[in-house]
């Protein structure tokens, strides 16, 4: 059997230094030459099994400390160097392992410094958000990924792109009319661009939703997608072909900083255009007003999913022909914000999650059910929220299903105009919510996860409140 070789020079050097030994003294005790020990400590020679056993017997040390990879420090350093601020500084794990082994105390100090930096950045972000709501302009900025830049641009403006809306409505009237949407779009692609559409089985396209093959002039869609999602992918491809100038004009108006951000934004605008093709503005607004914004009726009438109809409601902001100003939030099980869109009335924090009392969190316990409720914030503002889970692509046997939840909401006075008015008017079941726990000063909240930044902690040993974190 081949002898296992371990390169652990820095750890051998730490053992020797900790015992106050010279290289000559340790080499003599191990039965090797000082020059060979020097090579071992510089990782130019391996620590063989025989040497490991000799070290253990002579110096009574635990072999595990010579065979690990820097303990837990390596994983914590990986977290540090995955930050966008340090992305690309270290090409692989080997250098991280070497740092954690050669200088574990310095590595742990680096981890502590990074965590302190992240904590301060989070606090600054929260305070900037709070000051902005009070009318004070702030310029707190940090390292941002292109996708963060795109989200910030889209979230701080109305979710309405007039060039795309006008072009999509005109295209739908000329091309689709009252025909089957998917059939009309497929026929247009074939007639105008010679592109055929085909649905592929999972084994042929296991990791993709959609793929356009320029050589064979075919658009492939995954069978994992629901019929509604397939329709959207098809509509996105048509939008990129038919509404290219309008999408480009709206993209230029966003004034993004780099090519990657522009590519991400172009995808988001194509998604927006797809919804505009599937649910033309005028027809959708008229239907929404007639059915009092009942999302289930709208999804059935336009043959779309709940998520698609809810997203479309947030875009009804055409001057002179606007609907209720809805906002939308989509979260996953872990509370990660996947999408925000629509009106800007609902308070939110840039860091620290969302109020755990919101119905969007409860929706995961009741998949497919609509939860409508009124929410009153600490400042007295009130909202109607409608929450429901949505399913991702079809999962294979043994594969975990992707499930997210959406919260569709509007200011409470607008909620009276909707089919969800009973929930909006039921004062007895109104949820007393807030922003993220770090910014919320509501006392006695059983759902509180963190103390507020704006108040000192209450450390009275004689009195304990209902909340997990008491504050003064």
From TrEMBL:
<dbReference type="GO" id="GO:0003677">
    <property type="term" value="F:DNA binding"/>
</dbReference>
<comment type="similarity">
    <text>Belongs to the short-chain fatty acyl-CoA assimilation regulator (ScfR) family.</text>
</comment>
<dbReference type="InterPro" id="IPR050807">
    <property type="entry name" value="TransReg_Diox_bact_type"/>
</dbReference>
<dbReference type="InterPro" id="IPR026281">
    <property type="entry name" value="HTH_RamB"/>
</dbReference>
<dbReference type="GO" id="GO:0003700">
    <property type="term" value="F:DNA-binding transcription factor activity"/>
</dbReference>
<keyword id="KW-0804">Transcription</keyword>
<keyword id="KW-0238">DNA-binding</keyword>
<dbReference type="Pfam" id="PF01381">
    <property type="entry name" value="HTH_3"/>
</dbReference>
<dbReference type="InterPro" id="IPR001387">
    <property type="entry name" value="Cro/C1-type_HTH"/>
</dbReference>
<dbReference type="GO" id="GO:0005829">
    <property type="term" value="C:cytosol"/>
</dbReference>
<dbReference type="Pfam" id="PF06114">
    <property type="entry name" value="Peptidase_M78"/>
</dbReference>
<dbReference type="InterPro" id="IPR018653">
    <property type="entry name" value="ScfR_C"/>
</dbReference>
<protein>
    <submittedName>
        <fullName>Cro/Cl family transcriptional regulator</fullName>
    </submittedName>
</protein>
<keyword id="KW-0805">Transcription regulation</keyword>
<dbReference type="InterPro" id="IPR010359">
    <property type="entry name" value="IrrE_HExxH"/>
</dbReference>
<feature type="domain" description="HTH cro/C1-type">
    <location>
        <begin position="12"/>
        <end position="66"/>
    </location>
</feature>
<dbReference type="InterPro" id="IPR010982">
    <property type="entry name" value="Lambda_DNA-bd_dom_sf"/>
</dbReference>
<dbReference type="Pfam" id="PF09856">
    <property type="entry name" value="ScfRs"/>
</dbReference>
């Amino acid at each position: 059997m081949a002898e296992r070789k371990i390169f652990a020079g820095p750890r051998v050097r730490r053992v020797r230094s900790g015992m106050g030994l010279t290289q000559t003294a340790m080499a003599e005790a191990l039965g090797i030459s000082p020059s060979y020990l020097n090579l071992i400590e510089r990782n130019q020679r391996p620590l063989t099994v025989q040497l490991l056993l000799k070290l253990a017997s002579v110096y009574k040390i635990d072999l595990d400390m010579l065979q690990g990879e820097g303990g837990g420090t390596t994983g914590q350093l990986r977290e540090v160097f995955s930050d966008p601020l340090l992305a690309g500084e270290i090409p692989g794990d080997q250098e991280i392992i070497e740092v954690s082994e050669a200088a574990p105390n310095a590595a742990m100090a680096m981890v502590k410094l990074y965590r302190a930096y992240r904590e301060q950045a989070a606090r600054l972000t929260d305070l900037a958000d709070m000051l902005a709501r009070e009318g004070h302009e702030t310029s707190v900025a940090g390292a941002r990924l292109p996708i963060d830049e795109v989200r910030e641009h889209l979230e701080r403006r109305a979710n309405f792109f007039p060039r795309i809306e006008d072009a999509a409505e005109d295209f739908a009237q000329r091309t689709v009319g009252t025909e089957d949407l998917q059939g009309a779009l497929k026929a247009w692609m074939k007639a105008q661009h010679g592109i055929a559409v085909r649905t592929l089985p999972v084994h042929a396209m296991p990791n993709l939703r959609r793929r356009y093959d320029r050589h064979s002039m075919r658009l492939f869609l995954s069978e994992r997608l629901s019929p509604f999602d397939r329709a959207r992918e098809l509509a996105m491809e048509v939008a990129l072909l038919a509404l290219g100038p309008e999408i480009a004009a709206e993209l230029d108006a966003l004034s993004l900083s780099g090519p990657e951000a522009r590519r991400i934004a172009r995808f988001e605008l194509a998604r927006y255009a797809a919804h505009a093709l599937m649910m033309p503005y005028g027809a959708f607004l008229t239907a929404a007003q007639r059915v009092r914004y009942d999302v289930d009726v709208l999804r059935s009438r336009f043959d779309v999913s709940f998520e698609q109809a809810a997203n479309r409601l947030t875009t009804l902001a055409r001057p002179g022909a606007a609907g209720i100003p809805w906002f939308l939030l989509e979260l996953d099980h872990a509370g990660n914000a996947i999408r925000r869109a629509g009106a800007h009335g609902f308070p939110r924090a840039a860091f620290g999650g969302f109020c755990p009392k919101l119905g969007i969190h409860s929706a995961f316990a009741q998949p497919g059910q609509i939860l409508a409720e009124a929410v009153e914030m600490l400042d007295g503002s009130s909202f109607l929220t409608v929450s429901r889970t949505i399913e991702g692509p079809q999962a294979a046997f043994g594969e975990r299903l992707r499930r997210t939840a959406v919260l569709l909401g509007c200011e409470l006075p607008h909620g009276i105009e909707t089919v969800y008015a009973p929930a909006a008017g039921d004062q007895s079941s109104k949820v007393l919510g807030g922003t993220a726990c770090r910014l919320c000063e509501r006392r006695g909240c059983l759902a509180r996860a963190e103390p507020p930044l704006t108040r000192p902690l209450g450390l009275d040993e004689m009195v304990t409140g209902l909340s997990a974190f008491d504050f003064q």
